Inverse folding.
């Protein structure tokens, strides 16, 4: 009897081994090609932002591939921050059946232009920088973002100007993009609600470089501060230079788009000293939990601002959703979208948990205000931070 | 939420008018220099050189390169005036040569073709230069470090307005260049030949004028002025990038048409009027309507004077 058992045992062990190795193979890279698209302004006037986003996305894909042994490819689509180009790029990405998720586009005006096509294609796209509130409330169920909306940023900015800086007279400029117009409206409303007076509202184009005339107007208006939530950081620097040239003293306050050390600080030759910007992401240089990622990025790509890390977070969300869908045995665009919606990261690169609400907006996000001091942006503590309730872990 | 003025609008208008004139003259000086090249080439060849704006952009980049080569990382700066002159000269020479090359390869083979052919060729050259610059220098903005040559706060307080040193430099340089150009055209043999070719190319050739040489000369001078305009733009507005030539070229063309295309003083006048119109639009109407106002001015002038403000009757060729 005992002799007869041995072959059986051997067969059993062999079978177990086979199952085990099979399981390992299954957990490893899928055989089919899997791609993730990224849409951003890699050239053109917002190239400094787009290149940063692209590099962070590349790092995210490389990190994911290294961790899982997969071989996901990143497909680049350069939108030049132009909604018309974004539409063409979106169609190209949608028509590639090997693309299961897209990161971007960067600008709110671009998301507005392409979101409907993504809904039709059931293809999830996750932006790391589009902040217009209406994007997530318009029924685009394939759109997600890793940054908070201007519905939060506008009031933060307006209140900061009125209460923290004690400004009573404000001049507002937008750059005619849906992002800037929306944010300027939200901030103006909050500022007026706080008892402030808006002395004027002007629109410029993203191509403008001569701000001398506008500076004269603002100087004569008696405004104490200017709120200019433009997307092109160098325009903030050019406005600041025009003020300095004419000897006009006024507080310059910008938003996410101006968070660029190269364009807004170095390009302004000291004229933006003391200016403020609000940003949708923390400066992850200061985050201990992201120190390793920061070091690797800096080594490979150099310096960065606040635009890249949310795109890293968005890319990781996309990749992990694809992985979960694949492991659940159903890799389709619809399944990936569902997995993106179900994202629940304990700690993202942005230093906190990352999950989406039913609209695709990031849960519990906050805004950050920075001031230009010397060669850098320095985080300004606001009373809103202190008022924020402590996050209490439930049971 | 919309504009509520403090003080009476009239008071603000009077208080800011001098400053806006200075702002407008600066912008106008740049437009005028670009317009001159458009107008000169049109006068001689009846060709709209749509690559002209990109020559201007190349000039801005050459000036940037010279500036960066001569400004030390730290330490005292050696003679800023000489650096500025060098930037202008190198950019003008470089752009002049570029203009000759463009003429040689893109326009000369098409000189006897229908007029639409060199126009298309011009657009092609424009795309080529833009993309060549983007490919080699990337799409990143570059910033002139003007503050290292001229302190941003340097200037004269006139009481009613501030004339900064950079603006004074731009306006004066542009005017000097225009005077030199006037001298070249009115007082030299080559200038005389140029005027002759502009009036009638075939007759001038029959009188022994070397038409090819005149055309090369015209492209050289026109492009050199665009190069100077590029450097001046860099000095005063600091930001340069590969796509800056498109809008500037359009404005230069508008200014040339406004003054009467083919007419040299007209191009200068058109440039200054356009610069002032845009600046006043921002200052007294609204920044949003800047380009609207500029083009409305153009339309009104063309309605009243179809050949532009100083446009001479150009003999129609059969």
């Amino acid at each position: 009897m005992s002799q007869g058992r041995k072959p059986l045992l051997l067969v059993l062990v062999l079978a177990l081994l086979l199952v085990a190795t099979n399981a390992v193979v299954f957990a490893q890279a899928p055989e089919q090609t899997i791609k993730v698209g990224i849409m951003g302004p890699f050239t053109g006037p917002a190239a400094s932002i787009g290149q940063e986003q692209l590099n962070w996305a590349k790092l995210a894909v490389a990190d994911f591939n290294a961790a899982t042994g997969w071989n996901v490819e990143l497909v680049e689509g350069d939108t030049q921050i132009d909604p018309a180009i974004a539409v063409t790029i979106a169609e190209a990405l949608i028509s590639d059946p090997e693309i299961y998720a897209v990161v971007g586009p960067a600008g709110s005006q671009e998301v507005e232009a392409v979101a409907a096509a993504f809904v039709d294609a059931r293809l999830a796209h996750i932006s790391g920088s589009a902040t217009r509130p209406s994007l997530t409330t318009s029924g685009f169920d394939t759109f997600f973002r890793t940054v908070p909306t201007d519905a939060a940023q506008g009031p933060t900015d307006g209140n900061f100007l009125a209460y923290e800086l004690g400004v009573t007279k404000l001049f507002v400029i937008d750059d005619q993009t849906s992002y800037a117009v929306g944010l300027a409206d939200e901030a103006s409303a909050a500022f007026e609600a706080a008892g402030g007076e808006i002395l004027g509202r002007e629109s410029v184009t993203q191509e403008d470089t001569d701000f001398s005339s506008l500076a004269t107007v603002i100087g004569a208006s008696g405004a104490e501060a200017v709120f200019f939530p433009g997307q092109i950081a160098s325009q903030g620097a050019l406005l600041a230079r025009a003020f300095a040239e004419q000897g006009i003293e006024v507080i310059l306050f910008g938003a996410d788009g101006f968070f660029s050390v190269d364009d807004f600080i170095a390009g302004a030759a000291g004229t933006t000293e003391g200016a403020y910007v609000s940003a949708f992401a923390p400066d992850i240089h200061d985050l201990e939990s992201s120190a390793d990622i920061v070091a690797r990025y800096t080594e490979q790509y150099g310096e960065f601002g606040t635009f890249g890390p949310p795109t890293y977070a968005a890319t990781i969300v996309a990749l992990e959703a694809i992985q979960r869908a694949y492991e659940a045995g159903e890799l389709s665009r619809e399944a990936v979208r569902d997995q993106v919606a179900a994202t629940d990261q304990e700690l993202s690169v942005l230093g906190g948990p990352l999950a989406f609400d039913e609209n695709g907006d990031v849960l519990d996000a906050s805004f950050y205000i920075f001031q230009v001091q010397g060669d850098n942006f320095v985080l300004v503590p606001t009373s809103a931070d202190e008022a924020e309730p402590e996050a209490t872990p439930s049971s | 939420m919309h504009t509520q003025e403090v003080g009476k609008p009239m008071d603000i208008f009077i208080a800011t008018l001098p400053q806006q004139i200075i702002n407008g003259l600066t912008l106008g000086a740049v437009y005028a220099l670009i317009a001159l090249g458009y107008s000169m080439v049109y006068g001689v060849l009846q060709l709209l050189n749509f690559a002209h704006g990109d020559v201007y952009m190349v000039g801005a980049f050459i000036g940037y390169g010279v500036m960066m080569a001569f400004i030390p990382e730290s330490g005292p700066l050696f003679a800023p005036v000489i650096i500025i002159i060098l930037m202008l000269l190198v950019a003008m020479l470089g752009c002049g040569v570029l203009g000759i090359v463009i003429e040689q390869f893109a326009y000369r083979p098409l000189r006897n073709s229908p007029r639409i052919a060199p126009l298309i060729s011009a657009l092609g050259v424009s795309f080529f230069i833009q993309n060549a610059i983007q490919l080699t220098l990337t799409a990143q903005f570059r910033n002139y470090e003007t503050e290292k040559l001229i302190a941003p706060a340097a200037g004269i307080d006139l009481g009613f307005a501030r004339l900064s040193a950079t603006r004074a430099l731009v306006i004066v340089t542009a005017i000097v260049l225009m005077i030199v150009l006037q001298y070249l055209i009115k007082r030299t043999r080559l200038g005389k030949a140029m005027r002759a070719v502009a009036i009638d190319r075939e007759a001038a050739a029959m009188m022994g004028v070397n038409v090819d040489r005149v055309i090369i000369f015209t492209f050289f001078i026109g492009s050199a002025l665009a190069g100077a305009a590029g450097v001046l733009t860099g000095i005063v507005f600091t930001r340069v990038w590969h796509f800056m030539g498109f809008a500037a070229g359009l404005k230069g063309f508008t200014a040339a048409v406004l003054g009467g295309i083919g007419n040299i003083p007209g191009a200068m006048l058109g440039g200054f009027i356009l610069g002032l119109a845009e600046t006043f639009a921002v200052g007294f109407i609204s920044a949003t309507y800047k380009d609207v106002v500029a083009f409305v001015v153009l339309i009104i002038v063309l309605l009243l004077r179809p050949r532009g403000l100083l446009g001479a009757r150009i003999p129609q060729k059969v």
Notes: Residues 67 and 135 of chain A are 33 Å apart (CA to CA). The first strand of chain A starts at residue 35 and ends at 40.
